[in-house]
Amino acid sequence: MKREPKKAARKPPPGVAAAAKNEASRSVRVAAQLRQEVARLVGRELADPRLEGLVVASAWISADLRLAKVFFRIATTSEGAELDARRKDAEKALERASGRLRKAVTARLALRVAPELRFVYDEGQDARDRIEQLLDEVKRAAKDAD
Predict the structure, then answer these.
(1) How far apart are CA 120 and CA 38, in angstroms?
(2) C-alpha–C-alpha distance, residues 127 and 133, integer Å
(3) N or C: more exposed end of the chain, with fewer CB within 10 A?
(4) pLDDT of 101
């Protein structure tokens, strides 16, 4: 019985793998630039009082650079209903200014296609703060038990 030699696994052509890697890293670079630019524009060029205390936490952009999500937080000590009201006001203000932001970001980053900007409240920091608060309560309870 004659054995056939094992076929080597097919590798993509050298340029294809490198192109996929470059596209991923490009979207990461553009997202970082997008975050910086939106933060600059919100802080300096938009005079909307609803955006006071707004912090651009991060940004994500799709591989084809057509859709961008900008994650933001509100730097405040308010909690509960007051924080929810401020968050909703900030979301409305950002949506209203999205066309202006989109045009400015496209020009500053020299993009061929203007990405659609979607603004999302970053609840991660709120969750971290709540976890820290719970851990502090457990430490105090353990200290009181001793």
Answers:
(1) 13
(2) 10
(3) N
(4) 94
Structure tokens belonging to residue 101: 């932001």
Give the DSSP H/E element, type plus range, for residue 28.
Answer: helix 14-44
The pTM of this model reads 0.70
Number of residues in the chain: 146
Q: How far apart are CA 20 and CA 137, in angstroms?
A: 48
Which 8-state DSSP code applies to residue 106? H
The CATH number of the domain covering residues in 15-145: 3.30.300.20
Strand, coil or helix: 1:
coil
pLDDT digits (tens, 9 = 90+) for 4-28: 666 555 655 555 555 555 656 888 9
Strand order in the sheet with 67-74: 54-61, 67-74, 116-121
pLDDT given at position 18? 52
Place of tokens 């209203």: 96
CA distance 116 to 59: 12
Which ranges of the chain have pLDDT less than 70? 1-24, 77-78
Give burial (CB, 10 Å; 0-12/13-18/19+) of 122.
middle
Parallel/antiparallel/unpaired status of strands 116-121 and 54-61: unpaired
